Every structure is written in structure tokens, then in C-alpha cells.
UniProtKB/TrEMBL annotation:
Source organism superkingdom: Eukaryota
InterPro entries named among the record's database cross-references: AAA+_ATPase, Apaf_helical, At4g27190-like_LRR, Leu-rich_rpt, LRR_dom_sf, LRR_R13L4/SHOC2-like, NB-ARC, P-loop_NTPase
Protein name: AAA+ ATPase domain-containing protein
Keywords, in A-Z order: ATP-binding, Coiled coil, Leucine-rich repeat, Nucleotide-binding, Plant defense, Repeat
Residues forming coiled coils: 21-62
Signal peptide positions on this chain: none
An example molecular function term from Gene Ontology annotations: ATP binding
Family note: Belongs to the disease resistance NB-LRR family.
GO biological process: defense response
The organism of origin for this protein: Lactuca virosa
């Protein structure tokens, strides 16, 4: 028995020894296999990292917040890949140095690296497994900035009337026994301003504040959607929320709007504003607070702040008149601002004439809530010196109440209504609208809502309607505005339509129109965009032959009615985004058309009949996914065409879009063209697009490229993806005149100069290169006569030679370089040729061969640089290089630099390697992540008066060691 046990134990020991020996032998035998597997898994992890990074970038562009753990996973991925790269470098070195020695050394080395490869592979596999969840989701949507956070507080120090209302309202909201508070008062008295002031004052008391403008037409579904999140936070999380309902015209049932109320929901505070106290009482408000007109002294304080205190103090006669004008404004801030802005730069005789008009009686038929406003706001309107500004003001009233009004629509409608005298071009119309809007906003007749958009106060809108209905000595106007009122049908009554000049039914739910002939003999504008129309009765337009502006965009129209051809005076026609509309030949009979928009429709061809529209200024056929042909000769017949927007995903279609015919158009200035990457090499000769004032050429098989960061204000943008260098002549010409270029995955491209440009790139403001793997630098030459060489070898310059050494990149504002794995340096030339005086942003990611970014002499000229972002460049050693004792006396100053981000740069030693004093007077933010070799920011003095280092020990250590 003992012998059997001994034999069993001995056998197991032998098996264990054999297994161990076999495992150790396998390390040696499978060395190549193990190392190759490590390389493969490292590449898989890198690809996964890149995919997740793309999602992160998209999330950041959308303002979303990253999920917990995502950034940590990315950081670990960088560390794992960096470790693998270091290991593979050691392994490659070991092959060269060790494998030629004794066999035991060879075997020992094989064993070591094979075992290490297996261990590292297991870490990579586990990290890939951990990252699978992030490939589908990396972020959560973040809330849009609340109005309360964006609101600019008003100075109410000398306006006791408003201060008292503000104080009383805040006290009521803080009172735990009160749920609903209302501010009521006449139109223009400042209720909305006070509601905003309340929200700004108490915002720290609430988890969420929702501000909703209700207006006369109550959009229940919109209100429900806006309060949904706040209601959940209040009911589920038991958080306190404040809901502000501004401009209520009739009692509302809050529960029908999705707003929790009652004793069970006292953590939901509600603030209402209304012109009528009975509305507030009808909603059982707990505390009604009246806001009265400003007292005489307060009105005078506000008026002086608008007109200018010194101007009035230095002219006693003007001051006396100004006080009388102020008294006529009735203490309403809206009117005080409008009248003050209208008169502040006028001579005294205009002030006195205005005072006489303000003292006249107001029309009796005007509703009481705007009776005071009419005369005063009409005065501001009457004092507008520009007829165009007056027309634009009235045009704004046909948009929905409290709706956003974009200036491009105003320009398009304005062209159709012929409100611009001596119009040079459509671009001229756009500029004149911008000037008119600037005049109207400075006169307090419009409210600016951001870039190229405005709003109109509802009181001002009412006054605009009254102006149109009481025109004296002008073209008689009468508007029918039913925009955004939730209409499901429209059946105008006979006998009341004869006098209408403009009808706006936009933004409703109308699905069908009257199937009989209508009589609108004076109608010039008919707007019915954003409804649900699919069929238009054949006779519908028969009774409105004077129409010059027709907008039917964003409907479901399948075909155009026969009566549309009777609209022979039509100038502006918008049919955009009727995706089922595929036939537009009938439009050829509308010979006066100047603006035709069929963007996003289902058309397959621009038909021959469109060539009859010889007055056309603008043709927008962009985003027509089935469009593949423009009938030959059509473009050349459009002799006054200025702007063309067109594109297709059809392969080989570039030759069928009539581009060659553009060169015959003397007024042509704007072309937006989307084509597949294949057509880049088939772009036609002789098109002379370099003379265009504005263009965007997009050659790509992926429309996502449209979302790149080429600045939208750039006028001449060129985007090319998935193509080969060298480009043929027509495309090369475009580079010379583009102010922004984006190149993605362009094979065989080595540099910007001289590959794409000769000796001059003065127009270029934005450079973005992405995955152009052959690019080794932006400029490549060491020849002092490089300028001559470039010009002589560049057929774009037709053999002309220049002997002056011009500066490269002097107009460039943005440089973005992504995944250029062979980029070794930015400037492979004499640095006297380089000027980056206008550069604002430089962003470099995944450029693994790059050693340095800015030489000292270039860095000293970065007077406009605002942001530096460098991430995942594994060879980068220093951002600014150069400098010695001789140059240390010359300071480097970055006067506008505010942001520096450095991340995952394992070889980075310092930001600056020289000894000069570096001054960063505007710098506010520094981020350094995973830069393990960086022990100090740089030698010399680094002056950063506005940087708040906080408790980031890594950053602090960098500067303590300077």
C-alpha cells in the first residue's frame, strides 16, 4: 500500500515537472506566435480606442457629458498601448543584440519575451472586453443652458417700482405655504424682465427652472415637453423646481399642461405673468402682485440711461423737451426704450416734432392694453430713416408670435416683395437686411436672439399690425396672420379676402386647402410652410395672380397644381423639403422668378423648362438625393444666375450637372457643390471657379464630413476625402483660392507647400488634415531660392517667377492635424519664410512621429494664438524648441493665449526648452495628463498671472521645478 502511494505521488510530481517543462518549452517554441498575437491585439485595442474616441468627439461637439468610467478606460488604454510599444521596441532591440550570441542567451531571451507577450496580451484582451460597452455609448445628453444662466441682470438700483415688485415676488416664492405667484400689469411694463430677474435671484434655491413663453395661442404639447424633465425631478426625486409661465392670456388648467400642482406638490413653485388680473384670479393664484408703470422720476432715470445723461445735462432746452417726451411714455419701459433709442441721436427740432405727435390722440378702436404703446412705438417706426428698415419691420410681424425670425428668410421675401431699390445681387439683399435689423434692434423694435436671428415683442407685433391697417400715404397693407395657431384646416370666408395683401399660415397642422377658387386680388405674399399639405387643388392659385412670394416648404406635397403656372408675377418660390415632389417642369412658365428653392425634394433632373427662368438669381437644389442630371443648356440660359446650390451622390454625375456652363454667367458668384470622391478626378476643365466670391466644394463619399470644424464664416471652402494626390489641374486651381481646406485620407500627399501650393497661400485661413498618412511636414524645402523654385515648377503660376521671399501661413487662423503618422515636423524650411501671426488655434492629435511643434523664432510671432491642444503624439519631446543664452534676453509673449491642453505625450520633457522669459497674460487653463516624462514646464521664467492652479499637484510640481 505504501509503495502504491509512493508511486502515485512520484507520478504526480513527474507529471507536474513535465507540465512545467512543457509550458516553459512552449514559451520558446511559440515565441513568434505569442509576439504576433500581442501585436494583433494591440492593434485591435488601438482601433477600439479610435472608435470610442470618435464617439467622445461627437459627444463633446453635442455638449454631452461622458459616462463615468469612459475617460478612465481611455486613459488605461493609452497606458496599455504605451507599455506594449515600449515592450515591442525592447523585443526588437533584443533580436538585434542578443540572438547572435550563445544559444542559452537566445533561449533565455526568447523565453522572457514570449512569456511577457502572453501576459501583456491577457491585459489587452481584458481591456477590450471592458471597453465593449463604451463602443455603443459613451455619453449622456446634458441639459441645454437654461435661460436663467444666460440672462444678463438689469440695473434696478434707481427703479424702486420694479425693486419692490422683485422683492415681494421673491419673498412669496420663498414662502413654503405659497405655491403659485403672479405678476400682472399692462403690456410693456416689464413683467418678463421681472420674471427673469426673479429667476436669476432664486436660481440656487431650485434644482431646475423652466421658463416658458405661453402667448395668445397655447401650445399644450410644447409646454408638456418643456416641463417634462422638471416634473420628473420634482415628483420622483422630490427636488424643488420653479416653472415660469410668461404672457398668459387666459386661465390655464396646469394639470392639463403636465405641471404638478396642489398641496401634494408644494415643491413645485409656479410664477405667472399676465396683462390681466382676472386671468390670475381665474387660476387661483396664491399671491397676485401688480407691477405698475414707472414713476416720473424713475422713468426719467431710465430715459437718461438710454439717451445719455451728459448730452441732456449740457443742453437745457433739450433736457426740458426730453422730460416732456418721457412723461408722454406713460412709464412703460418698453416704450421708453423705443422712444429713447429713436430720438437719442436726433437734433432738437425732431424732438419737438416728436413731442407734438406723442400728444395726439390714440385711435379709439385700439385695445386698451396697447393703446399707450401705439403712438409711441409708431413714432419709433416713423422716425426710421430707411424705407427698407420699415418694410423689414412690418415683414417680421407675419412670423409666429414669439417665434424666431431668420434674416435669410427676410432677404428672400424682401427680394420677392421688391423692397430693395437698385438691388445689385442677392448678397446685397442679405447685407441690407442685416443693416435694417441692426437699425431695428438698436431702436428696440426687434430683439436680437443670436447670430442672424431676431424676435419681435408681442406688443410691438400688435403695433405693427395696426400700422399696416392704418397706412397713410403708403401702399395700403392688410395682413392675415394665423401662424403657429394649431390650425388643422383653413376655410376663408367669402367677401373678407379682397383687401388682404399678405397671408401667413406657417407652422400649423393644415393638411388640405379649399378645393374651390379663392379671390385675393391684392395678395402679394402667401406663406404656408411647415404644415401637412400633400395635395393642392388645381384651381387653388387661380384667384391670387398678384402673388410675388410663395413659401410651401416643409410639407408633403406630391405634385404642383396646374394653377401655379398662373402666378406669372412670382419672384420668390420655396418648395424645399417636399421629399415626394419629383416634377417641376411647370415652373418654367414663371418667367419673373428670381429665387427658386427645391432643396431636399425628390427631383431627379433639372428639366429643360427651368432654362426659361432667365431672371433667376438663386437656384437651390442641394440635398436632392436622387438628382443626377441638369439638362444641357439650362445653366447657360440662366443669364442672371448668381448662386447655385447643387449636389448628388450619383457616381460620374459631375459631367452632367452643367458646371461647364457656369463660365458663361457674368453675374455668378456663389457655388455650393457636393460630389462623390470619385468625381474629384473628373472635375471639368475651363470652369473658372477660382473667380467665385463664395464656394463650398465637397468631394466625399461620406456626408458626415459636412460637420467638420471649418469655420462657417469662411467664404471659399474646399473639402476632399478618400482621394489620391496629385490632383488634376481644375482641383489644384481651387486650392489657390480657397480660404479653408479639409483633406481626409488623401494618399501620397507629402506636404502643403509645394505639393498643393506655390509660393503664396495668402487666402488660406483654415487647414485641417486627417489621416493623410504620407504627410511628413507642412512645408518642405531647405533651398534659399525656394520661392523661385516653387513658382517655376508650379503650373498654377504659368511659369511666372518671383524673387521675393514671401511669408507662408500669414493669414492662417486654424491648423488641425489628426493621425498623420509620418509627420515629423511642421516646417522643413528656412524659418524666415514662416509667419503665424494670425493663428488662433492649433490642434494636433495622434501624430506619432512629431518631435516638436514650434521653433522659437516662430513662437515669438504667435500674437493671436488662443488655444493649443496636443494629444497622443508619442514621440513629441517639446512644444516650443530652441533658444540659448543669446536669445534668452528676448521675451516670448502670448498675449491672447487662454487654453493649453497636453495629454498622453510619453516623451514630452517640457513645454519650452529654452531660457527666455515666457509671458502668458491671458492664460486661464492648463491641463496636463499622462505626460510621464515631463518633470518641469520649462526653464526660465513663466509668467501666468491669471492661471488658477488649484490643488492639481501634477501641475504644481511642473512649476515648482522651473
Amino acid at each position: 500500500m505504501a509503495e502504491d502511494v509512493t508511486n502515485t505521488v512520484a507520478g504526480k510530481i513527474v507529471d507536474l515537472l513535465f507540465s512545467a517543462a512543457k509550458r516553459e518549452t512552449d514559451y520558446i517554441r511559440n515565441y513568434t506566435k505569442n509576439v504576433d498575437k500581442l501585436k494583433n491585439e494591440a492593434q485591435k485595442l488601438k482601433d477600439m480606442r479610435d472608435r470610442i474616441q470618435q464617439r467622445i468627439n461627437a459627444a463633446k461637439e453635442n455638449g454631452e457629458a461622458l459616462l463615468a468610467g469612459v475617460q478612465n478606460w481611455m486613459d488605461k488604454a493609452e497606458i496599455e498601448m504605451s507599455n506594449v510599444e515600449e515592450f515591442l521596441e525592447q523585443e526588437a532591440h533584443a533580436k538585434k543584440t542578443c540572438f547572435n550570441l550563445r544559444p542559452c542567451v537566445n533561449l533565455s531571451t526568447l523565453h522572457h519575451y514570449s512569456k511577457m507577450a502572453i501576459n501583456k496580451t491577457s491585459f489587452l484582451l481584458q481591456h477590450q472586453e471592458d471597453g465593449k460597452t463604451h463602443e455603443s455609448c459613451v455619453s449622456i445628453p446634458t441639459a441645454t443652458p437654461r435661460l436663467v444662466d444666460l440672462y444678463q441682470r438689469k440695473n434696478l438700483d434707481d427703479i424702486d417700482t420694479h425693486k419692490l415688485v422683485l422683492r415681494e415676488t421673491i419673498q412669496a416664492i420663498k414662502d413654503e405655504s405659497i405655491q403659485m405667484v403672479a405678476i400682472y400689469g399692462s403690456g410693456g411694463v416689464g413683467k418678463t424682465t421681472l420674471a427673469n430677474e426673479v429667476a436669476a435671484e432664486v436660481k440656487n434655491l431650485f434644482a431646475d427652472i423652466v421658463f416658458i413663453t405661453v402667448s395668445q395661442t397655447v401650445d399644450v404639447e410644447k409646454i408638456k415637453k418643456n416641463v417634462e424633465v422638471a416634473a420628473k425631478r420634482m415628483m420622483i426625486n422630490k427636488e424643488k423646481v420653479l416653472i415660469i409661465l410668461d404672457d398668459i392670456w387666459e386661465p390655464l388648467v396646469l394639470s392639463d399642461l403636465g405641471i404638478p400642482c396642489g398641496n401634494d406638490h408644494m415643491n413645485c413653485k409656479i410664477l405667472l405673468t399676465s396683462r390681466r388680473m382676472d386671468v390670475c384670479e381665474g387660476m387661483n393664484v396664491d399671491r397676485n402682485i401688480c407691477v405698475n408703470a414707472l414713476k416720473k422720476e424713475e422713468a426719467w432715470v431710465l430715459f437718461k440711461s438710454i439717451v445719455g445723461d451728459e448730452k441732456l445735462a449740457n443742453n437745457s432746452s433739450l433736457e426740458k423737451t426730453a422730460k416732456e417726451v418721457t412723461e408722454e411714455c406713460g412709464g412703460l419701459p418698453l416704450i421708453i426704450q423705443a422712444v429713447g433709442n429713436a430720438l437719442k441721436n436726433r437734433p432738437i427740432h425732431i424732438w419737438k416734432a416728436a413731442l407734438d405727435r406723442l400728444r395726439k390722440h390714440v385711435p379709439l378702436e385700439i385695445a386698451p392694453e396697447i393703446r399707450k404703446a401705439f403712438t409711441h412705438l409708431k413714432l419709433s417706426y416713423d422716425l426710421l430713416e430707411s424705407k427698407e428698415a420699415k418694410s423689414i419691420f412690418l415683414l417680421c410681424s407675419i412670423f409666429r408670435e414669439d417665434g424666431i425670425i431668420d434674416m435669410l428668410s427676410l432677404a428672400e421675401y424682401g427680394v420677392g416683395l421688391q423692397i430693395f431699390d437698385n438691388l445689385d445681387s442677392f448678397n446685397d439683399a442679405v447685407q441690407r437686411v442685416e443693416m435694417a435689423v441692426d437699425t431695428l434692434t438698436s431702436s428696440s423694435l426687434l430683439l436680437s436672439e443670436g447670430d442672424k436671428v431676431v424676435k419681435m415683442h408681442d406688443v410691438v407685433r400688435d403695433v405693427a399690425f395696426l400700422i399696416t391697417s392704418s397706412s397713410e400715404g403708403e401702399k395700403k397693407e392688410k395682413f392675415l396672420v394665423e401662424a403657429g395657431k394649431g390650425l388643422t384646416e383653413w376655410q376663408p370666408r367669402n367677401g373678407i379676402s379682397d383687401s388682404y395683401t399678405k397671408i401667413s399660415l406657417m407652422s400649423n397642422s393644415i393638411e388640405k386647402l379649399p378645393d374651390h377658387q379663392l379671390h385675393f386680388p391684392l395678395l402679394d405674399t402667401f406663406l404656408i410652410q411647415r404644415n401637412g399639405l400633400s395635395i393642392i387643388p388645381d384651381d387653388f392659385f387661380r384667384g391670387m395672380k398678384e402673388v410675388t412670394v410663395l413659401d410651401m416648404s416643409w410639407n408633403k406635397i406630391i405634385s404642383l397644381p396646374q394653377s401655379v403656372k398662373l402666378l406669372t408675377k412670382l419672384i420668390t418660390l420655396d418648395l424645399s423639403w417636399n421629399v415626394s415632389l419629383n416634377e417641376i417642369s411647370i415652373l418654367g412658365q414663371l418667367k419673373d422668378l428670381e429665387i427658386l428653392k427645391v432643396r431636399g425634394t425628390g427631383i431627379k433632373v433639372i428639366p429643360e423648362e427651368i432654362g426659361q427662368l432667365t431672371n433667376l438669381r438663386l437656384l437651390n437644389a442641394g440635398d436632392c438625393r436622387y438628382l443626377s442630371d441638369v439638362t444641357p443648356g439650362v445653366i447657360s440660359k440662366l443669364t442672371w444666375l448668381e448662386e447655385l446650390y447643387i449636389g448628388t451622390v450619383e457616381k460620374n454625375a459631375v459631367s452632367r450637372l452643367g458646371l461647364m456652363e457656369i463660365s458663361n454667367l457674368k453675374s455668378f458668384r456663389v457655388l455650393y457643390l457636393f460630389m462623390g470622391s470619385y468625381d474629384c478626378d473628373h472635375f471639368p476643365e475651363g470652369t473658372y471657379f477660382e473667380t467665385l466670391q463664395e464656394f463650398c466644394f465637397h468631394f466625399s463619399d461620406n456626408r458626415i464630413m459636412d460637420k467638420n470644424r471649418l469655420k462657417l464664416y469662411l467664404n471659399r471652402r474646399l473639402r476632399i476625402a478618400y482621394s489620391n494626390f496629385p490632383f488634376k489641374m481644375p482641383i489644384k486651381k481651387l486650392f489657390q483660392v480657397s480660404d479653408g481646406i479639409l483633406l481626409r485620407e488623401i494618399k501620397d500627399l507629402d506636404n502643403i507647400i509645394p505639393d498643393l501650393y506655390g509660393d503664396s497661400i495668402d487666402e488660406l485661413k483654415s487647414i485641417e488634415l486627417d489621416r493623410c498618412y504620407n504627410v511628413s511636414c507642412l512645408v518642405k524645402t531647405t533651398d534659399e531660392n525656394a520661392t523661385q523654385t516653387f513658382v517655376a515648377s508650379n503650373d498654377l503660376m504659368l511659369g511666372q517667377r518671383k524673387t521675393t521671399k514671401e511669408k507662408y501661413f500669414s493669414q492662417v487662423e486654424q491648423i488641425c492635424l489628426h493621425k498623420l503618422k509620418n509627420l515629423k515636423l511642421l516646417f522643413g524650411c528656412s524659418l524666415q519664410y514662416i509667419s503665424l501671426r494670425n493663428l488662433q488655434l492649433i490642434e494636433i492629435t495622434d501624430c506619432d512621429s512629431l518631435l516638436t511643434v514650434f521653433p522659437l523664432s516662430v513662437a515669438q510671432g504667435l500674437s493671436n494664438l488662443r488655444c493649443i491642444s496636443i494629444v497622443r503624439c508619442c514621440s513629441l519631446m517639446v512644444v516650443i524648441s530652441g533658444g540659448d543664452e543669446q536669445t534668452a534676453e528676448n521675451d516670448i509673449v502670448f498675449p491672447r493665449l487662454t487654453h493649453i491642453e497636453l495629454g498622453f505625450l510619453p516623451q514630452l520633457k517640457s513645454f519650452y526648452s529654452g531660457d527666455s522669459t515666457v509671458k502668458y497674460p491671458s492664460l486661464e487653463f492648463i491641463q496636463v495628463r499622462n505626460c510621464g516624462s515631463m518633470k518641469r514646464w520649462g526653464s526660465g521664467v513663466h509668467d501666468m498671472p491669471n492661471v488658477k492652479f488649484g490643488d492639481d499637484q501634477q501641475i504644481l510640481n511642473l512649476f515648482h521645478k522651473n
